[in-house]
Amino acid sequence: MSWTDERVELLKKMWSEGQSASQIAKELGGVTRNAVIGKVHRLGLSNRAAGTGPAPAAAATAAPKPEAKPKPAPKPEARAKPAPKAEPAEEPEDTGSEEVEARSPARKQIIPAGQPLPPQPSANEISPEALAKVSEVEKKSKKLTLMELTERTCKWPVGDPATEDFWFCGLPAQSGKPYCEAHVGVAFQPMSARRDRRR
DNA sequence: CCCTGATTCGC
DNA sequence: GCGAATCAGG
């Protein structure tokens, strides 16, 4: 494979979107993540500042070239948000007490998924912290399709499979588990963390 | 172990 | 220019 104009374009797009080199490589096909990284550097866009996403405030470690940065590329990515979030709290250590649920009167939970894939917590009570983490993680999800899942990507389904607003979390699964840390938290509940029958 | 990007250097 | 190998982290 060669770096055609289109492939380079896709590379630029995905890179500025914050996609990892390996993901870009998979998307492009026929190249490794090394190739992608190499190309990225050759293109001189090691800095991922493109206006979209959180400004990394990256310290330009090496930029002896006061090159003008031609990046008036506005990316009007319309994102349908089925789940209205309260507010973008960065790293809520633990506000202490808050009602994580009871914010969407009409809406059901954000994790419908009627398939046997996700072990639904049924009527079990999940730690509010875990739920908060899940909804928070959704924003960072890679939004992978079914075929993009690997053995080490979180297979937690998000959204409604019947609509377009459906994807898999795709974040790195922490262990031999099928989910990322956040989703493991709600998937595998320590049953009744109240049974301390210490012998 | 899994992953990430960064750099080098033979091609 | 290209990218595998390697390096240096998380």
TrEMBL record:
Cleaved signal peptide residues: none
Chain residue ranges for the region called Disordered: 46-130
Compositional bias ranges of the Basic and acidic residues kind: 66-80
Residue ranges of coiled coil: none
Species: Marinibacterium profundimaris
InterPro entries named in the record: GcrA
Listed Acidic residues bias regions: 89-99
Biased composition annotated in UniProt, kind: Low complexity: 48-65
Protein name per the record: GcrA cell cycle regulator
